[in-house]
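ugh ok fine here u go
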Amino acid sequence: QERCCLTEEDVRRVIKEELDHAKSYSAKHCQSCTGNALEEITKQLRPMMEFFLQELKEEFKLANFHSLHLGRADARSTENNHMRNLQIQFQTKLSLPLYTGKKLEGENGTPISIALIDATTGDVITSGPESSIKLDVVVLEGDFNKEDGDNWAQEEFENYVVKERDGKRPLLTGNLQVTLKGGVGELGELIFTDNSSWNKSRRFRIGLKVATGYCGNARIREAKTEAFRVKEYRGEAYKKHHPPASGDEVWRLEKIAKDGKSHHKLEEAGIHKVEDFLLQLLVDPKKLREILGKSIIPKSWDCLVRHAKTCQISRILYLYYVDSMRKHGALFDADGKLIGLIKDRVYVATHQLSAQEKEHGDTIVKKALDNLNDVMELNGETFSPSMQMKSLSCIFEGQIENPTLVQRNLASQICVAPGGPEAPRAIVSSTAE
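structure:
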């Protein structure tokens, strides 16, 4: 409301103007009247004008009283706002990771709720002009690391707002304002148009601040989310599979980006499929770790291995080493077909072998028939952490029910001595790590 700023002098000026106007009007319409008659008319008008003047004075006093009252009320409201320590707050965490072109959502797909609270009491401000203010949604630099309990300055917040880039689309599109109702609200549709890789911290935050023109006399602290990365969304063609199939390209595994450094290193080592990865993991996990090198950190390595082990392997495979150091050997299936060679602790699939190498592999498989206790079965339908390789000699201990054709053929060739079958070697247990 606008305050009244009239003074008594202003009122008198208005009255004088009205009297002069009345005199002029009377003179115009009473030109035939004598001077005494005109003076008589003026005397009759004067009491009316004095009464009007008194009425204006009363209105003037009343207006000044209300103006003073409102001014004090505004001052008290501003003072109370400062005392209440008002803050905007996110009530819902973001669903991560975030991708370009995808709508921002709260955890579990819920709307992103916000509220205006009194930080001292934690209560939502449900009434008063502040409870229905309008807020601007902005993007902040990821390294705005102030704690939620800190009372940062408005200028400090503004310094971390990501500015528009020349020649680029707005970084964040959609409903960039939200109006509170009863102190609460929900963010509308918001979409990032670019990833965060170009940013100094490689991360962003979402921020909320009071829109221009609202609560100019009160300080309401802004809100911010946790820092997050925005990744490029490339659709179904780049998605990871859960669980991965044995024939999937190796980049379908977590932490292996398509056409990334780790992907190229694995391909150079002949590891193209998920099954190739698993078999190399089984044969020599240290060698596989060496292949990937520093392109993958220990935490990412653990995640990669866990994901790979969820792969469903339906066929039974057999492994045979030709040396005691387990550097060279062959893998074959239940039909006796060569699957791949172990060359200096590196698994190489048959499609990467030369004709001469394949012939050498077939020779190793035949040699396995003469060394049955050293032939190990990759037991179990999944490459789980409890996966074990068992010696085929377990057949004679009744540990393998319904042996495969290869198992029976291999077992039938074991030479039984007069004292009974050759004592089997201990079961060879091995985990994939």
